[in-house]
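Could you show me some protein's one-letter sequence and the numbers that encode its backbone in two labelled lines?

___
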Amino acid sequence: MKSYTNTKSAWKVYLFSAIIALLVSFGVIEFNKQTTKEDVGVTVVDSVRGSHVLYTADNEGNIKPLDFTETSEKVLDAVVHIKSTQTGSSYGDHGTRELPDPFKEFFGDMFKGQAPEGMQSRPRVGTGSGVIINDKGYIVTNNHVIANADEVEVTLYNNQSYKATVIGTDPTTDLALLQINADNLKTMALVNSDDVEVGEWVLAVGNPLGLNSTVTAGIVSAKARSIRINTDKFAVESFIQTDAAINPGNSGGALVNLDGNLVGINTAIASTTGTYTGYGFAVPSNIVTKVVEDLLKYGNVQRGMLGVTIRTMDGNLAKEKDVSFTQGVWVEHVGEDSGADMAGIESGDIIVSVNGKETGTSPRLQEIIAGKRPGDKVAIVINRNGKEKELEVELKNSEGGTSIIKKEEKEVFNLLGADFENLNKEVAKKFRLEGGVQVTKLYPGKIKKETQMREGFIITHIDGERVKNIDDLADILEGKNGGVMLEGIYEDGSKHYYAFGLAS
């Protein structure tokens, strides 16, 4: 009886233990299922700002995190995309400009769709960038971005597009000034580029490689660089060099400091491939300011000239000339009756400063003088035979005078897209003309778009009416409506007629 009872009790214990084990196992299985489901889910947390790992100092020496976001936000609205289109056949003999290696000019004059010689020409489109400098719609860009274009279109950061008028150009600095008719424009202020320091952080803003509104960062690598990329007779090259990445399409865009102010207009790159490999070059804002002021006030750039040929002094030159080395600019030749000649500067002098600013290189001397106009006087310190001497030089214009040469400003001339000047008396005498008006420069406008006229054409008649001077030209064309026929000659004596339409 006892044995039976013990056996029965044992079975009860076993049964209870089995039930407990089963429940525990079931609980573990369910827990694992729940855990597996939770592991498959995605965990989302509130975003946190990235840590600043670089620091910089402001002008007061205060240390602050290096952050480009605020600067980028300030400047992006003021940088535009520029599309220049050649639609006429007048560009048939304009090819892509060959440039010296390893320096490649870029952005905008590399037009696509160039037709083979003898075939029907198709529109060619080039692109670049520009900077809005005031709320009246004035935009600075590079001359090579819009050179030879028949139409120029500007697209803002918000993707609105406008037709642009070319106010003026300056091939000597590769700058151009455009204007659009738009409201509520964001603008960018220019700073004194003399205050920009090597090693300073800068941002390049533009539209490289078809990628609109791109910002890259770098430092100022050097100042007063000349890379001999501008072949104009009176070219001025004193670039700010930067390692901020710039590429085709950046041309005419902004180089800005961390305050979001313009220190230069991006213009060229040093490259064996045509794309970014290390260094870009920008026209300093001081030169930009002078060019813009001249174009707005006079219609063209007023260039004051010393009248000397120069070389940067170095050890080899000092040895060649058998003189003691002095940092400055060697005067190779002095033009007769030039400002330098009249002031007493001689071949062999070494220019060490202008108006108290050191001139350690030829580009730096060019940059300082480029900021002056004919008739301005500058204090030049020279080193002659080891002794310094200060001379006052009155700068002259390209014609040897000291007066401002102002372009005639007529509203209809902007519509035509041309600069004009009264015919030189000697040329008029050669062709036995009583007078005439010569086309000195063509911009995007009626003439380029609708005719094949070349620069240098001499207008003698409009619709059969005699044209003796610029006033005659303006009087006949003002308020003109309908077709216009220009008659005239080129200096080789060939006679031509050009027709286009005007709407009053």
Observations:
- The chain is about 20% helix and 30% strand.
- Residues 2-40 form the longest helix (39 residues).
